[in-house]
Amino acid sequence: MSLKYSNTTADFLQWDEAMNLIRKLFKDGNYNMSLLIALGCFFGLRISDILSLRWNQILNVNEFTIIERKTGKKRTIRINPQLQRHISDCYKSINPIGCNAPILVSQKGTVYSVQRINIILKELKKKYRLHIGNFSCHSLRKTFGRQVYNMNSENSELALVKLMELFNHSNVAITKRYLGLRQEELLNTYDCLSF
Q: Could you tell me how many helices (H) and strands (E) the chain has, helices first?
């Protein structure tokens, strides 16, 4: 875990690459990881909250509410129709023991650990030749944040305020640093110089 407000080491996936990875994993029969990456990119939750989800919370519903483990705060999440279809397809393919079962269960029948998921993500990075530096569980949350920011470029300040609230950051500067935007802004300063 990184120090509070320090730079984290996780990078984000470009949105198109993340969506392609979800489709490839599903096609290859890796339904658990396809679902994990989809939920991480669409929900922006921490891995501890994703691992605590059960099928009855996300299957055939438009939204659900959780209490975030780290902050203890209540958060309501809406599930868009495309993601609903993917969740349903994964449910049918995984065929869990029941609707009250955890969504991410290993072949041994236990919920994946964060450490095991990080190992799997590094393997996926290599196997699928992903264009990402450090691929970890936290990369999915950052991918969500970057996509929200990128999709709202015409009103980026409002997007940052929304993300600040969703991520429970105390100010926009922390959100910018978290998403790597501050570093990009600083590096872009060099691009404005000419010879």
A: 10, 2
Q: Tell me if residue 76 falls in helix, strand or coil.
A: strand
Q: How far is CA 129 from the centre of its chain?
A: 19
Q: How large is the greatest C-alpha to C-alpha distance in the chain, in angstroms?
A: 66
102's tokens:
């955890």
Q: CA-to-CA distance for 190 and 194, rounded, in angstroms?
A: 9
- pTM for the full predicted model: 0.85
| Pairing of β 74-78 and β 63-67 | antiparallel
Using CA atoms in the order 125, 130, 135, 141, what is the torsion angle rounded to 10 degrees? -130
Q: Are 159 and 149 in contact (CB under 8 A)?
A: yes
The token pair that represents 189 in the structure block: 């300063």
Strand, helix or coil for residue 80: coil
Q: Can you tell me the distance from the alpha carbon of 55 to that of 65, in angstroms, rounded to the nearest whole number?
A: 13
Burial of 105 (0-12, 13-18, 19+ CB in 10 A): middle
Q: Is 109 exposed, middle or buried (0-12, 13-18, 19+ CB in 10 A)?
A: exposed
Rounded (5°) CA angle 165-166-170: 40
pLDDT (tens digit, 9 = 90+) per residue, 90-137?
999 999 998 999 999 988 889 999 999 999 999 999 999 999 999 999
